[in-house]
Automatic annotation (TrEMBL):
CDD domains: KOW_RPL27 (cd06090). Pfam families: Ribosomal_L27e. Transmembrane segments: none annotated. It comes from Vittaforma corneae (strain ATCC 50505) (Microsporidian parasite). The keyword Ribosomal protein applies. One of its GO terms (biological process) is translation. This is 60S ribosomal protein L27. Belongs to the eukaryotic ribosomal protein eL27 family. GO terms for cellular component: ribonucleoprotein complex; ribosome. The keyword Repeat does not apply. GO terms for molecular function: structural constituent of ribosome. Keywords: Ribonucleoprotein, Ribosomal protein.
Length: 126
């Protein structure tokens, strides 16, 4: 298929439209399991209150099962270690999806801090 593990894709439909994600694995019936970034940390000015600084420093990820028609393939690969995500956990079960998201958050946050796959963590320019 055109989508391979660790390929960076753009989501074109839904509430996550315009977000970047990496393919974790290809599922049956033209579905993909994606791990992506909803929000990256931003620097905050000193005059902001502490709660706004904490909010700006959050690193938010998502795990999503999505149809191939709603994804745009790119030429970029992200070798950040998403292969280590547990294969026995199902994305349909809410508890295991939360556990998968926590694992993906740790992996992607460490890649962000190590400056791996830089294009994955930059905003799209429109």
């Amino acid at each position: 298929m055109i989508f391979k593990p660790n390929m960076i894709v753009l989501i074109t439909n839904g509430r996550l439209a315009g977000k970047k994600a990496a393919v974790v694995k290809e599922l049956e019936n033209n579905m993909l399991l994606l791990a992506g970034i909803s929000r990256t940390p931003e620097e905050s000015p000193d005059y902001l209150p502490a709660w706004q600084k904490r909010r700006n420093m959050k690193f938010v990820t998502f795990i999503k099962k999505i149809n191939m028609k709603h994804v745009l393939a790119t030429r970029y690969k992200a070798d950040v270690g998403l292969d280590a995500l547990s294969a026995e956990k199902s994305p349909e079960d809410i508890n295991s999806r939360a556990a998968l998201n926590q694992e993906a958050n740790k992996i992607l946050k460490s890649a962000f801090e190590a400056k791996k796959a830089k294009w994955l963590f930059t905003k799209l320019q429109f």
